[in-house]
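Re: Re: token formats

Sure, here are both.
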Amino acid sequence: MSSVRRLLAASVISVQNSCFIYPACQNCFSRLLLDSRRFNCLKCGCTGEAKDASYRYRLSLKTADTNDLFEITVFGSCLDPFFGVTAGDLRRCIRDFNQLSGETNNDASPGILVQAVETCFIGKRFIFGV
């Protein structure tokens, strides 16, 4: 894999999924496996209590420049300004909203959040570091 970093100016065509946050290992940023009490990182072996798991943004986008289509995934705290809160705080808001609305899947993003993300990103042009 090349270590050359390039900039890509592209417009967002669509948001690829509605799951914007994930439980992330604090050591290697890989997705954690969670059960009701514990978390485990399959990549580096880190373990801990589920309540102490940290969360990270992951936004998958379909983009286009003047010539090609690209699937780009944006990770981490660079998305904090767009969401207005950290990924951990957003997860708490989603969990609280879902509990109030009776949603059984505590990690499901409310439809209004998905619409807000689509409004914020689709049709807008960004410069991505790839």
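Second one below.
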Amino acid sequence: KKNEQELKDEEMELFTKYYMEWKGGKKSDSISYANIPRFYYRLPAEDEVLLQKLREESRAVFLQRKSRELLDNEELQNLWFLLDKHQTSPVIGEEAMINYENFLKVGEKAGPKCKQFFTAKIFAKLLHNDPYGRISIMQFFNYVMRKG
């Protein structure tokens, strides 16, 4: 029979073995962690002037790129003109409507910045109970103004 100290030593050895396996002590088990991209970077300290300048500049470039993607006033006016020109009859009430075929035509003519808004998904999202399968031009234009 084993004495009490030998049992404790064996118990500690097994505990350490299983704990290391569970914790990821084996290199083969933790390889997947190396594939996870880093998503958090700490903010630079006050004395890290170069890192602060780099952060400011990268933020400015990001905001410039985003602002170039936005539609300016002239592009919005052109979009409204195209939508109004391609509205689909019959007119019910006072609301101008457009069907999917004309929606795609406007999408081709509207320009590259507007292309992201002329998808089947967006058309379906704005499609309500119109018996002719059309969407409201005003609702679509408001959607573009909010999202763009």
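The chain has seven helices and two strands. The first helix runs from residue 4 to 23.
- S.
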